[in-house]
Design brief:
The protein has three helices and three strands, in the order αββααβ. With 114 residues, the chain is α+β, with helices and mostly antiparallel strands. The protein has a three-stranded antiparallel β-sheet, covered by helices on one side.
């Protein structure tokens, strides 16, 4: 979601996502933009690209985690990610029974009622 906010531009201050399951309804959540996290994400994404993708190698297990020079910075980034997860706002929970679902053979059942 943060990458999507970055792509939309600096005026995008949050993103909304709908997570729907087959039996438990849907959860509509909002995540607020965090510039510091975005900067770190880009740092690590660029580093991964140059050290793994550009080299055409398979990433090692726990890449960056145990890096002697940068492991501490990476672990802080992971901790920041966990902290951000705790700030996700639940906008709405839509109960399973309130979700219109397709019932019947796809060839004769319309997904939309109108």
């Amino acid at each position: 979601m943060m990458m999507e906010m970055l792509c939309v531009g600096p005026h995008c201050s949050s993103a909304v996502m709908v997570r729907q399951t087959a039996t438990a309804g849907a959860l509509i959540i909002r995540l607020r933009r965090d510039e510091r996290w975005l900067e770190e994400m880009m740092f690590w994404l660029e580093r991964f690209h140059s050290e793994v993708v550009d080299q055409g190698i398979e990433p090692p297990c726990n890449f960056f985690w145990e890096d002697e020079a940068m492991g501490g910075r990476y672990r802080k980034f992971v901790a920041h990610t966990l902290q951000l997860a705790s700030t996700v706002e639940v906008v709405e929970h839509v109960r399973h029974q309130d979700i219109q679902r397709m019932v019947g053979p796809p060839a004769i059942t319309f997904l939309f009622l109108d």
